[in-house]
Amino acid sequence: MSGNLYESFLDVFSANSGAPAIELADGTTWTYGELTDQVGRLARRLVEVGVEPGDRVAVQVEKSPQALFTYLACFQAGAVYLPLNTAYTGPEVAYFLSDARPRCFVCDPRRAEELATIAGEAGVTSILNLDPTGFGTLTDGLEALAPMTEVVERDPDDLAAICYTSGTTGRSKGAMLSHRNLESNARTLHGTWGFQDGDVLLHALPLFHVHGLFVASNTALLNGSKMLFLPKFDADQVIRLLPRARVMMGVPTFYVRLLERDDFTHELVANMRLFVSGSAPLQPETWRQFKERTGFEILERYGMTEAGMITSNPLDAERRPGTVGFPLPDVQVRVAKQDGTVLDRDEIGILEIKGPNLFQGYWNKPEKTAEEFRPDGFFITGDNAKIDARGYVHIVGRAKDLIISGGYNVYPKEVELTLDAIDGVKESAVFGVPHKDFGEAVTAMVVAEAGKENALTEKGLIDACRTQLAGYKTPKRVFFADALPRNTMGKVQKAQLRTDYEDTFQGAA
Ligand code: MLC
Ligand code: AMP
């Protein structure tokens, strides 16, 4: 056996070949045998269009069973999977493609014309497409192809995926994840969360980020579980399917939205075993309301693109709201000062981590990678944390200037650069303020150039950002001022802006 994660999956798939792997809302089902066959054909298609082991395959498509098969086909063919959020605009995609230089790019046919030009300019030689129903040039004539049966040999340290994560300097960095990284994390989560026969996963997360792909899908695949596959979170559909599910994973927004529904009841979740939350802080109040309504204690865990999952509240011991639990069995964590001095229990500092889940560095950015590692191999997460006397990890804030909106990360710098480039804008400050639904909402303060004050409007600026940035990064509100609040060192006081505008979305849903 080589280090290719797909070999481990195949063992499970063969043992469960007649069992359902994916079921859509309309009842259409693929068994693990059918999934294996489709993955083999897609792997053949990738090879046919020139994909070689180690080549990147960038994929920006809506969630569908075929999107998941394509992910697995990349592994089988020894390629490196590079998922892209469907919300990314043309300029954002242009950056990812020119940085990662994939051999192949699979996009949505509805955007094929726009994106083919961009991909061509980035040197991509094979451009395919796949629509939300599984049709497109990627799957055309697939049934005539012989499924690939062999799995391309990979070393455990060879790359399996590159996932872009927003950069502090305004540009995203590609986190390089190896087969070992993904496999160790999937096995650890499978064990830690007690995956068992009969588990059915309600999968409503997007497939292009760590949570929906490596946490939700990989653990379910390793278990040979059925996934009830929704194209996106839709409270009506989730409520309809919950009685048939055993496990659900979501960002806090999912749980906030479910609690807003009167038909989300104790009886509805009688068949459930586990609710997991992560990607953003779950408010203790939401945790308590959820317990009161359903009897279930949501299991909160913590992770990041560079490491997959890092800590988790326990399955069989006390789950403490407002904490992210204990380090996973094979992960080491410590809290340290900026200068690297390791702190004691209950002291607040930056969380540092190490383990087989930890990534291989940022694609093409060795200096950036070196800056974020300690000499002994610990990675500096940029999250402020403390470890309490009982060993529970608390994430108490962020040292990095990051907004998390509905589970998506937004780096203010990227939005500020976009605003500053708009004619008439002198400077801007972007910050996050509380939002009931999204947790935090992107908000901006703009200073106009002298004489251009009347040329700028809130709507005009939001519309201009929207042409450059994904919708979730675009400010939900823009305010104007004569000057940005700065301290004596000239640094913009974001904390003050956050306080001044904390009621902006009061009551917003
Ligand atoms: C969509 N919109 C958002 C948004 N999602 N705005 C702010 N924050 C968000 N998260 C905007 C769109 O741009 C659009 O605006 C409008 O809302 C409606 O779009 P939609 O697609 O219909 O929204 P909705 O279905 O309501 O999506 C909300 C959501 C979704 C919370 C269900 O964002 C989601 O599934 N989030 C999960 C993110 C996730 O998987 N994160 C994991 C990252 S991995 P307009 O203006 O265009 O009309 C990670 C590591 C770890 O963090 O630990 O897991
Ligand atoms: P990403 O870079 O998109 O993978 O997001 C990772 C970041 O999400 C982490 O560095 C944390 O800041 C945040 N995060 C993930 N899970 C949690 C959680 N349970 N509580 C608080 N923050 C979290």
Automatic annotation (TrEMBL):
Residues 414-491 form the AMP-binding enzyme C-terminal domain. It comes from the Bacteria. Pfam families: AMP-binding, AMP-binding_C. SUPFAM superfamilies: Acetyl-CoA synthetase-like (SSF56801). Residues 18-363 form the AMP-dependent synthetase/ligase domain. InterPro entries: AMP-bd_C, AMP-bd_C_sf, AMP-binding_CS, AMP-dep_synth/lig_dom, ANL_N_sf. Belongs to the ATP-dependent AMP-binding enzyme family. NCBIfam families: PRK07514.1. This is Malonyl-CoA synthase. It comes from Rhodovibrio sodomensis.
